[in-house]
Amino acid sequence: MLVVVANDLPPAVRGRMKLWFIEPRANVFVSGVRDSLAKKVVNYLYKHCPPKSGLMIFNSSNTTPGYEIFGMGDTRKEITEISGLPLVIEKSAEPPPESQNSLLIRQIKLAIMI
């Protein structure tokens, strides 16, 4: 299986991708192509996409951990490896807002401690 996530693809590349992939969401492509064709598709993307395309490619493999992750350009996400396991770090823009209940609970805990 091959999954391609992009920030922005040139129209010619996007049209070509639709030959082998389904596009469940804009600039997200999923396909069950064979490994030999997957390598050709990845090479095609590296050759024809500018760095601003921000490609992130997930490819299944027979080696541990069962997949590979490739990135090109500004992906807005960071690829890291922890104990040999490649992972994607997605930073949130802002921390989640605190609700009134959680603020009240925190104040009660502080009052009990004093």
Structure commentary:
This protein has a single domain (about 1-114), classed as Alpha-Beta Plaits, CATH 3.30.70.240. The chain contains three helices and seven strands. The radius of gyration is 20 Å and the shape is elongated. It has about 110 residues and is of the alpha+beta class. Helices cover about 30% and strands about 30% of the residues. It has helices at about 10-15, 35-50, 100-114; strands spanning about 1-5, 20-25, 30, 55-60, 65-70, 80, 85-90. The N and C termini lie far apart (about 60 Å). The model has no long low-confidence stretch (mean pLDDT about 85).
Topology diagram in text:
Elements: E1 2-5, H1 11-17, E2 22-25, E3 28-31, H2 35-48, E4 55-60, E5 67-72, E6 78-82, E7 85-89, H3 100-113
Antiparallel strand pairs: 1-3, 1-4, 2-3, 4-5, 6-7
How large is the count of helical segments? Answer: 3
- Named CATH architecture: 2-Layer Sandwich
- Biggest β-sheet strands, sense, barrel: 5 strands, antiparallel
CATH class, anyone?
Answer: Alpha Beta
* C-alpha-based Rg, rounded: 20 Å
The whole-number mean of residue pLDDT values reads: 85
Salient structural properties:
two-stranded antiparallel ribbon; Alpha-Beta Plaits; 7 strands; 30% strand; 114 residues; alpha+beta; 5-stranded antiparallel sheet
Brief summary:
This protein is α+β, with helices and mostly antiparallel strands and 114 residues long. Helices cover 31% and strands 30% of the residues. The chain has a single domain, classed as 2-Layer Sandwich (Alpha-Beta Plaits).
